C-alpha cells in the first residue's frame, strides 16, 4: 500500500518541471523523519489502508498452473497421487490456438525411421523409376554474361606474369651418410626359477579361462539357435 510519504513524493514528481532543470542528488525529506512518525504511518497503512481503484490490466492473463516452487514444496505422496491421476484420467485441455501460419515440411525424420526397411526400399525404387516432378526453379539472380571475367574490369592476372625474376632450380644438398648404429650388448639379468614357475601358472590359468569362455559361447549360441528354430516351428505347425 502507498503511505503519505509516497503520496507526497508522487505529487512532487507530478509537478511540471521548470525551465531551469536542476539535478538534486540529496535524499528525500521523508528519509529524515522521526522513527515514531514512520511507525504511525505503518500502523495507519495496516489498520486503515487506503482504498485504491481496481486494477486495470492491459494484457490478457495466462494460466501457467502451479509454480515450480509450490510443486517442490509439496510432500512426496502428493506428487505420486498427481502422477497417477494424470495417467488414469488425464486433463482435457482446450484446443491449441496457433498464432503462426503452418508450413508443410513433409514427413518427419522420426516417422521415416519408424517405417520398416522394405518401405524405404520401395520408395527408393519408385524414385528411381518414376521420380517426382518438381516445379521449375525460380531464380532471383541473373546469370553472368562473362564467366571468365575477361571482358570486364575484374581480371585475375596469371601467377607466372606476376613473377619478375627468372626461375632458378637449386640442386639438392648431398646427404651425409648416416653413421652405422653400434650394437650394444646388454647382459641379461639372472632369471629366478620361482618367477618362471609363476609365469607358467598364470599361462595355464589363462588358457583354462579361454577354453571355458569358448565353451560357454558355443553353448549359448546353440541354445539361441535352438530357441529360434523352436519358435519358427511352433509358429508354422501350431494347431
What does it look like?
- By secondary structure, the chain is mainly alpha-helical.
- Helix content is 46%, strand content 0%.
- It is built from eight helices and no strands.
- It has helices spanning 4-13, 35-47, 68-73, 76-88, 109-114, 117-129, 159-162, 193-237.
- The longest helix has 45 residues, at 193-237.
- The chain starts with a helix and ends with a helix.
Biggest sheet character:
none
Helical stretch count?
A: 8
- Report the mean per-residue pLDDT as an integer: 76
Give the percentage of residues in beta strands. under 5%
Q: Class by helix and strand content?
A: mainly alpha
List key phrases describing it:
disordered N terminus; mainly alpha; 8 helices; single chain; 239 residues
Write the layout of secondary structure elements.
Elements: H1 4-13, H2 35-47, H3 68-73, H4 76-88, H5 109-114, H6 117-129, H7 159-162, H8 193-237
Give the structure's gist in a few sentences:
Helix content is 46%, strand content 0%.
Amino acid at each position: 500500500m502507498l503511505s503519505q510519504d509516497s503520496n507526497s513524493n508522487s505529487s512532487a514528481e507530478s509537478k511540471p518541471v521548470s525551465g531551469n532543470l536542476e539535478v538534486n542528488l540529496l535524499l528525500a525529506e521523508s528519509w529524515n523523519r522521526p522513527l515514531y512518525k514512520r511507525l504511525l504511518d505503518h500502523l495507519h497503512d495496516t489498520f486503515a489502508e487506503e482504498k485504491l481503484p481496481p486494477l486495470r490490466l492491459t494484457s490478457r492473463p495466462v494460466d501457467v498452473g502451479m509454480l515450480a516452487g509450490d510443486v517442490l514444496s509439496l510432500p512426496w505422496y502428493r506428487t505420486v497421487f498427481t502422477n497417477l491421476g494424470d495417467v488414469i484420467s488425464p486433463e482435457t485441455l482446450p484446443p491449441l490456438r496457433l498464432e503462426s501460419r503452418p508450413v508443410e515440411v513433409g514427413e518427419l525424420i522420426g516417422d521415416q525411421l519408424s517405417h520398416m526397411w522394405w518401405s524405404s526400399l520401395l520408395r527408393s525404387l519408385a524414385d528411381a523409376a518414376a521420380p517426382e516432378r518438381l516445379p521449375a526453379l525460380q531464380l532471383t539472380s541473373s546469370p553472368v554474361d562473362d564467366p571468365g571475367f575477361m571482358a570486364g574490369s575484374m581480371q585475375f592476372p596469371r601467377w607466372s606474369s606476376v613473377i619478375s625474376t627468372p626461375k632458378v632450380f637449386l640442386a639438392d644438398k648431398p646427404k651425409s651418410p648416416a653413421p652405422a648404429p653400434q650394437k650394444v650388448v646388454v647382459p641379461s639379468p639372472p632369471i629366478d626359477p620361482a618367477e618362471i614357475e609363476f609365469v607358467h601358472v598364470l599361462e595355464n590359468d589363462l588358457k583354462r579361462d579361454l577354453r571355458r569362455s569358448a565353451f560357454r559361447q558355443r553353448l549359448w549360441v546353440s541354445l539361441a539357435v535352438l530357441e529360434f528354430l523352436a519358435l519358427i516351428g511352433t509358429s508354422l505347425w501350431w494347431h
